[in-house]
Design a protein that fits this description.
Arc Repressor Mutant, subunit A, DNA-bd_HTH_TetR-type_CS, DNA-binding, elongated, HTH-type transcriptional repressor AcnR, DNA binding, 214 residues, mainly alpha, Tet_transcr_reg_TetR-rel_C_sf, 2 domains
Length: 214
Amino acid sequence: MIDKFENLPEDKKKRILDSAIEEFAVNGYDKASTNSIVKKADISKGILFHYFGSKKNLFLYLFDYCINTLIDKYYLLDDIEAEDIFERFMRVSIKKMKVIQDEPLMNKLVFSAITNMPKDLKEELTVRHNNYTSKYLPEFFEKVDTTNFKEGIDSQKAIELMMMCMDGLSSKYIQRYKDVSMDEVMNNYDEIMEDFNKYLDILKFGIYKSGESK
């Protein structure tokens, strides 16, 4: 069934994808209406289910499509890979902010699917999320310098804590700049970095050896 959808002309495929992504992102899986999707996409409900079989299959397809698109856009952004973990987190957060602002509905669909998994999709989404994490997370931590961590610090737990903090900060900046253009965001780059570094300094104080904060 999915092969038939994949072989559609690009404009028709994009129309269906855009309609479905918007519906699920705005209303969530449980409240999303396939009637609304087919109306926006200008197709029949029978055709939609001919391609995907069920609402569940459609959502799982969209989850994979969105997360792969976001990842591809992230890696297309040129950047210098920093060895210092705090510098790397800062660069990663800025890149994520750019991608999320470019694709807010895709990000909302993926984020809500992961944080509020529908009961009948929990098993499939958990497997998918774990697969993506196991595939891409090790790449992020390649060549990370942890030599400046305090003695006795569990580096893995420290990294996990930092990830949670950075995700929270990214959400803060995304919310602050959600109604402005990317050009305007970049015009405020120095202000964002100054604010960002204040939080990083607090984390460094707890993780790095005395005198090793950079």
